[in-house]
Amino acid sequence: MSKLISKRGCLVRRAALLFFAFISISLSFVSCSTVPSVSSFILADGRQQFFVRPVDVKGKDLSSSIDFTVHIKDDKVCDAVVVNYTLNGNPLKEAKAEKVSVSFVTASAEYKVNEAKVLFKNMKPLSTRFTSTLMAQDFTSLVRTDEMIYVKFTSEKGSELSIPCPKLRKTFSDFKSILDFE
């Protein structure tokens, strides 16, 4: 009888070890996986809302992050796209961050954000968060392009800084495949 109990105890320990090993390996795969660049939600009115996670834009004198909120209905972008971005520091030294405009540039076109408003400003370290919009057709053109996308920052005095952003191109490519844009 005691041999039977010890064999059961051994089997239970082995099963527990295998279970914990399986859980540990599973968790390590989950923690190594990447976060999708786009998440979606269904809104009460039937539109689908997509959130394009922040993309870092870094240049020699600039650090920024940009994210997008897109509403889709009947397989089309149905509203102006919300573009939120953060400027870290003062990218164009002669201008206040609030006076810097943002646009997206390809070899064939430039798409300017509209209605930029300051959401908040931190003094230490200096960063300014904005919300703005991009016309639906401009966003669709950006998603469809195979060209390199540059993020262009322009001061009110006309100084410009354009930064190539292959991460944004990749994110838009992912978004294009989700929506099957042609």
Strand content: 35-45%
Give the number of DSSP strands: 11
Helix and strand succession?
Answer: HEEEEEEEEEHEEH
| Spatial gap, N to C terminus | 72 Å
Distinct helical segment count = 3
The radius of gyration is 24 Å
What's the shape? globular
Helix and strand content put the structural class at alpha+beta
Approximately how much helix is present in the residues?
Answer: 25-40%
Q: Please state the average pLDDT score.
A: 81
Low-pLDDT segments: 19-34
| Largest β-sheet summary | 7 strands, antiparallel
Quaternary structure annotation: single chain
Could you describe the 3D structure shown?
The protein has 182 residues and is of the alpha+beta class. The protein is built from three helices and eleven strands, in the order αβββββββββαββα. It has helices at 2-32, 136-144, 166-179, and strands at 38-42, 48-59, 62-73, 76-77, 81-88, 101-105, 110-112, 114-122, 127-134, 150-154, 160-164. The strands form two sheets. Strands 1, 2, 3, 4, 5, 8 and 9 form a seven-stranded antiparallel sheet that branches. A four-stranded antiparallel sheet has the order 7-6-10-11, with helices on one face. The longest helix is centred in the first third of the chain and has 31 residues, at 2-32. The termini are far apart.
